[in-house]
Design a protein that fits this description.
Length: 396
């Protein structure tokens, strides 16, 4: 069957109000407006995708300017950093040191009250009452009891945690191959973060032991970090600094696995929800995504690791000389019960959520300053383009 189309004259005779051939041809950019069409010049045309991206980028303009200035100076000093080079891992290690050391030290007052309430739930009724009593008895310095070992310990831990995570993630990705690395990416995040945290906790453990003892003894058993280390080793030997290592692994390894795997997953979900791909957003918007994903991941981390956190505090404060780890754990659990493992959870959720969000913000801002990409990303570009096309079709 052959389909034929009416010639232009026949169409003009049938539809007198149609635009004439003199006004429009097939090669014209667009046909002239008929009386049934709206006047397009009165309405601005816009793309829903571009509009959303523009709004996100406008919000980050001020931050981007500051970031660009700092970034240009830093990159002049460090030079170009190749991905997965020794200089790259050194940068990630430095970023982790800053992210964990600064944030944990900043929330020392929260950590102080949390540890004391975990050891003795009847000591304070609430945070503000606790801070009031501590400040009246010991002054402002008392509220920051334990800040020294916190700064030293979590700086060391953050360096090994973030630098190690980047290293192990690349190592395991190469071993698995590109296809399997993408298919089993969550397993990859979990194993890489666990591997890094096992090493990081060995660096943290001596300082954590001193911090907890300083915070849970009134008055503190030592006034300085290394004074505390000397006091512990003099009485118990070097082993006294590491007697909390097993419960520390029990707390920190699940915490870090949740922290990194959930962060990577939430970042991907955010970019999947937003129009456009990650690369189309400014660095300020990308670091805002890092903070949001980090905060949400922190809430999950706090819940998963809280029972072990309580046990670490109890063991460091109440473990008897020469008492075996298993025996000490069983004795403490018998005293506090299952409900006692959740003392201070609300405070810790607030503390860890804020802390984790700020850590990712600092870490990714530091990476951007050195000319490196932020952590995590959206789905593959081709899937993102299909999603954007579907969004435009629905809005249209």
């Amino acid at each position: 069957m052959v389909l034929s189309f009416p010639y232009l004259g026949a169409m003009r005779d049938a539809f007198p109000s149609a635009p004439s051939a003199q006004n429009w041809t097939a090669d014209s950019a667009e046909p002239p407006r008929t009386r049934y069409q709206a006047r397009q010049e009165l309405y601005s045309t816009w793309s829903a995708i571009d509009d959303a991206k523009d709004k996100a980028n406008q919000l980050s303009n001020a931050a981007v300017k500051e970031l660009q200035q700092a970034s240009s100076k830093a990159q002049q000093a460090t030079g170009k950093i190749e991905m997965y080079s020794p200089k790259f891992y050194a940068a990630c290690t430095s970023g982790g040191l800053l992210a964990c050391g600064l944030t944990h030290t900043a929330v020392t007052p929260l950590d102080l009250v949390k540890c004391r309430r975990q050891v003795d739930p009847k000591m304070y009724k609430g945070n503000f009452e606790a801070w009031g009593k501590i400040s009246r008895a010991e002054g402002l310095r008392g509220i920051y009891t334990g800040w020294g070992p916190t700064l030293w310990g979590y700086s060391a831990q953050g360096a090994f945690k973030y630098g190690g995570y980047e290293y192990f993630k690349k190592l395991y990705s190469d071993l698995a191959g590109p296809e399997n690395a993408q298919r089993y990416k969550t397993v990859l995040y979990l194993t890489a973060s666990a591997s890094a945290e096992v090493i990081a906790d060995v660096a943290l453990c001596p300082f954590e032991a001193v911090k907890v003892r300083m915070q849970t003894t009134i008055p503190p058993f030592a006034r300085s970090t290394f004074g505390g280390i000397s006091t512990v080793t003099a009485k118990e030997g070097t082993a006294g600094l590491f007697k909390g290592l097993y419960p520390l692994w029990g707390r920190q390894v699940p915490y870090t696995m949740m922290k990194f795997a959930s962060f990577e997953t939430i970042v991907e979900m955010i970019y999947d929800y937003l129009p456009g791909s990650k690369a189309e957003y400014g660095k300020g918007a990308q670091t805002a995504v890092s903070f949001t994903a980090g905060y949400l991941a922190g809430i999950l981390c706090a819940i998963v690791s809280h029972p072990a956190d309580v046990m670490v505090s109890k063991l460091n404060a109440n473990r008897k000389d020469g008492e075996a780890f298993g025996a000490a754990t069983a004795r403490i659990y018998k005293d506090i019960g299952f409900a006692g493992l959740w003392n201070g959870l609300v405070v810790r959720i607030f503390m860890i959520g804020t802390l984790t969000g700020l850590q990712w913000l600092i870490y990714d801002s530091y990476k951007v300053t050195l000319g490196l990409p932020t952590t995590g990303g959206g789905p593959p570009a081709e899937k993102k383009q299909e999603k954007d096309a579907e969004t435009v079709t629905k809005l249209g």
